[in-house]
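Much of our argument rests on the idea that a fold can be written as discrete symbols. The record that follows shows the chain in one-letter code together with its fold in token form.
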Amino acid sequence: MKKLKIKKGSNVEVITGADRGRKGSVLEVDSKRMKVRVQGVRIQTHYDKKDGLKKMEGFIDYSNVKLA
């Protein structure tokens, strides 16, 4: 498994995609799938029976972010 430079809590900038140019801190890292979840980037709606509609961040590819 490859060692990732970006860790939870790091400040990163999105370099490609719809959220290009946005900055935020890393909330979660999935090293097996090479994906990261960044605060305020790729907001998705999720329906939960108990809480109803929730807006939460989705995973983006590790190669689409750089350390800020």
The chain has a mean pLDDT of 94. Strands lie at 11-14, 23-30, 35-38, 43-48, 52-57, 59-61, 65-67. The two ends are 24 Å apart (CA to CA).
